[in-house]
Write a structure and sequence with these properties.
Helix 2 links the parallel strand 2 and strand 3. By secondary structure, the protein is α/β, with parallel strands linked by helices. About 40% of the residues lie in helices and about 20% in strands. Helix 2 (about 40-55) runs parallel beside helix 10. The strands form two sheets. It has a seven-stranded mixed beta sheet, with helices on both faces. The protein starts with a strand and ends with a helix. It is elongated. It binds alpha-D-tagatopyranose. The site of alpha-D-tagatopyranose has 14 residues, from helix 2 and helix 8.
Length: about 325
């Protein structure tokens, strides 16, 4: 586990909290457990969480697993439970496997909020704040269909089976791509959040399907590996790629023409909203059980637009 001390280099602040709320949670501690360390999506979310928590006078402790894996995230949650913070915001790495440790947190009086990913059974969580990932997957299908001229073979790189975001993006994509009759969907393959594995999937797929037209890479690491695989095969630009997320690496890939479209999420807003909701839960105020956030499709053509610039991850 990694404990990230101090405040990440974050660019903008959150709105001020009502004074009566501030008094009641002032000095209380908030734990944040992202899905994995070193991921610009979660680092940007951490910036939002830290800004909103600072407004409330709360302290934030961040502990991240080295891989997106419930067997590494579970001991971190167990450690958090032992420390007894007032609240825990977490992106569970598996919809089922992360339920027991989070139930422990809930039963120990810790207010639990889910961010980004969710659980199959969300009863233990006061709130869940996440992208509408099915809609994001559908947006990726439409973007990819347009890029390949509505014909040819397309592949999905699912970053992690059992992670709600990966599953929902894949399902949203599959449902929407079926409405494009000229496209042949050759299926999804799982890269376990490992760029090298995505690269080798691309290599093997190109060997079997040299006419591959497009790829939907369901997160940052899937897109990075997809670009490597295409580069190794000399197919950059020829095979069109739609990635998810808009961190610095993804933006560079877009500018260099390795990826043709990005589905950007709103990690900073997910972070600030989750803090506002968990504070409401802690102070007996009305809480929204599920807060969906949107996506925006980023391309080279619309990149300079202010609302698109706004969507690029800041960390
Ligand atoms: O795509 C995001 C996040 O939404 C997903 O659950 C895990 O991967 C990312 O963090 C990007 O690497």
């Amino acid at each position: 586990a990694v404990t990230v001390a101090g405040t990440a280099a974050c660019s903008s602040g959150a709105t001020a909290a009502a004074p009566e709320v501030r008094d009641s949670v002032q000095g209380q501690s908030l734990a944040f457990v992202p899905g994995v360390a070193g991921d610009s999506f979660y680092i940007t979310m951490q910036c939002g969480i830290q800004a909103a928590a600072a407004e409330q006078g709360m302290t934030v402790d961040v502990q991240a697993p080295q891989q997106f894996d419930p067997s590494l995230q579970t001991p971190i949650v167990n450690g958090v439970v032992a420390q007894k913070p007032a609240a825990l915001l977490i992106a569970p790495t598996d919809t089922v496997a992360m339920y027991p440790p989070l139930l422990q947190a809930n039963q120990n009086g810790i207010a639990v909020g889910l961010v980004d990913t969710t659980l199959e059974n969300t009863e233990l969580a006061a709130t869940s704040v996440s992208t509408d990932n099915r809609a994001g997957g559908a947006a990726a299908a439409d973007a990819l269909a347009e890029l390949v001229g509505d014909q040819g073979k397309v592949l999905v790189i699912a970053f992690k089976a059992g992670a709600s975001t990966s599953d929902a993006r894949q399902q949203g994509f599959e449902q929407q791509i079926a409405t494009h009759p000229g496209i042949t969907y050759i299926g999804a393959q799982v890269n376990d959040n490992d760029p090298a594995k995505a690269a080798s999937i691309i290599g093997a797929t190109l060997a079997a399907h040299p006419d591959l037209a497009g790829v939907f890479a369901t997160n940052q690491f899937a897109a990075e590996g997809t670009a490597t695989g295409l580069r190794n095969a000399g197919k950059i630009g020829q095979v069109k790629v739609v990635g998810f997320d808009a961190g610095p690496v993804q933006v560079k890939q877009l500018q260099q023409g390795e990826v043709q479209a990005l589905i950007a999420q709103q990690p900073y807003e997910i972070g600030t909203t989750a803090v506002q909701q968990i504070v409401a839960a802690m102070t007996g105020k009305p809480v929204t059980k599920e807060v969906p956030t949107g996506t925006i499709t980023v391309t080279q053509e619309n990149f300079a637009q202010p609302e698109v610039q706004q969507a690029v991850y800041k960390a």
